[in-house]
Design a protein that fits this description.
5 helices, 33% strand, seven-stranded mixed sheet, Rossmann fold, alpha/beta, two-stranded antiparallel sheet
Length: 189
Amino acid sequence: MRLGAEAREDERLVGRLETDVKRAIRTIPDYPKKGIPFKDLTTLWRNGKLTRRVMDAMEKRWKGARLDKVVGIEARGFIVGAPLADRLGAGFVPARKVGKLPGSKVSMNYELEYGRQGLEIHTDSISKGDRVLVVDDLLATGGTSRAAGTLVERLGGKVVGFAFVAELRSLKGRRKLSGYEIYSLAKYD
């Protein structure tokens, strides 16, 4: 009986967190191109208490996953990825845009909803067999996250899952991440 009550309370708290996160994120129309409603999470990050609640939820979700590394996708994925890695006792690996990393790296190009982009990871950042969580602020079409996951796998790592603060379900990004565990706090239809 107690477990059922605790589960319902957890569910209620998660629902309240999702509502609070969605209220904190502003939408900027026609950015970076006409027709794109950009979800701006900087309005979330400026609220320290809410940011802590987001990080607490992410930590709780991934605590038992035995992660070796957390890959944060440039640039907003760094905001979530680095503190999450610290909380989980894992290393942090930046997945950067092409031309930003100085050492030996693996690269991949992918499609965005508004153009083409490239992503790189240092070759010595992931070891064979490393258990890796890929983190970004937002799941849209899934192209960037899928590229980061592919780079992890090329280096011999195992992608344990993908984590996001928000998700735009209408863009069907989960399709590109099919077969992986996907966690997102705030879901927009």
